[in-house]
């Protein structure tokens, strides 16, 4: 064995633990999102520009609850506190569900729809195609794909219904935390 071969073998041996300790993209995504736990942010509707339900209303997200495998993010639309995005992590895969409540806290008839990522995604974006449960609950949503992006300055929540013109995007400014809002409808600590 030459000196050069020995150096290469030693370099590979030393580098091996570093390679095996690389962070999985979904774990990086999760940790970035979790770093905002307890904070609230205001944002704006990007698409569709003229939306009756969301247009012109104050949009706020509150990363209200974080555990090792679950993050709950209430999403407020004006005075409407009915929506919470629920992200769950199972090993390296993240799922997104939508918890919808009435003002008295009872569940909406259309509740806990969403999807599960098909892979570990990327550290700044995760995709959630509609799951079978969602397809059965909302047949028209069978081709829904939701995705969330997060980086140092923005969080975006997105929806595209493939094969249609349905598209939705809100972007939250993560550089300016705001006062924590009151609890969403039906919230139990």
Question: Which terms would index this structure?
Answer:
3 helices; single chain; 189 residues; alpha+beta; 41% strand; globular; Lipocalin; 18% helix
Characterize the structure shown.
- This protein has 189 residues and is an alpha+beta fold.
- It has a single domain (24-178), classed as Lipocalin, CATH 2.40.128.
- It contains 3 helices and 11 strands, in the order ααββββββββαβββ.
- Strands 1, 2, 3, 4, 5, 6, 7, 8, 9, 10 and 11 form an 11-stranded antiparallel beta sheet that branches.
- It is globular.
- Mean pLDDT is 91; it is low at 16-20.
Indicate the topology.
Elements: H1 3-20, H2 25-34, E1 40-47, E2 59-62, E3 65-66, E4 70-77, E5 80-90, E6 93-100, E7 113-116, E8 125-129, H3 132-137, E9 144-150, E10 154-161, E11 167-178
Antiparallel strand pairs: 1-2, 1-11, 2-4, 3-4, 4-5, 5-6, 6-7, 8-9, 9-10, 10-11
Query: By helix and strand content, what is the structural category?
Result: alpha+beta
Integer average pLDDT: 91
Order of helices and strands: HHEEEEEEEEHEEE
Query: Count of DSSP helices?
Result: 3
The level-1 CATH class? Mainly Beta
How many domains? 1
What distance separates the N and C termini? 64 Å
Using the alpha-carbon principal axes, give the shape.
globular
Rg of Cα set: 20 Å
Tell me how many strands there are.
11
| Approximate strand percentage | 35-45%
The helix fraction, in percent, is 10-25%
Runs in which pLDDT lies below 50 for 5 or more consecutive residues are 16-20
Largest sheet data:
11 strands, antiparallel
CATH architecture: Beta Barrel
CATH topology: Lipocalin
């Amino acid at each position: 064995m030459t000196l050069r071969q020995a150096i290469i073998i030693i370099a590979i041996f030393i580098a091996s633990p570093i390679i095996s300790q690389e962070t999985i993209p979904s774990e990086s995504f999760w940790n970035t999102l979790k770093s905002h736990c307890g904070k609230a942010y205001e944002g704006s509707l990007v698409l569709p520009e003229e939306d009756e339900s969301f247009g012109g209303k104050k949009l706020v997200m509150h990363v209200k609850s974080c555990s090792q495998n679950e993050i709950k993010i209430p999403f407020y639309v004006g005075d409407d506190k009915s929506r919470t995005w629920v992200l769950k992590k199972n090993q390296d895969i993240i799922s997104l569900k939508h918890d919808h409540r009435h003002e008295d806290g009872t569940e909406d008839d259309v509740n806990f729809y969403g999807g599960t990522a098909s892979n570990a995604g990327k550290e700044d974006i995760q995709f959630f195609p509609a799951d079978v449960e969602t397809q059965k609950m909302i047949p028209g949503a069978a081709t829904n794909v939701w995705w969330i992006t997060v980086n140092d300055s923005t969080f975006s929540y997105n929806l595209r219904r493939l094969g249609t013109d349905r598209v939705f995007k809100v972007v939250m400014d993560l550089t300016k935390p705001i006062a924590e809002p009151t609890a969403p409808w039906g919230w139990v600590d």
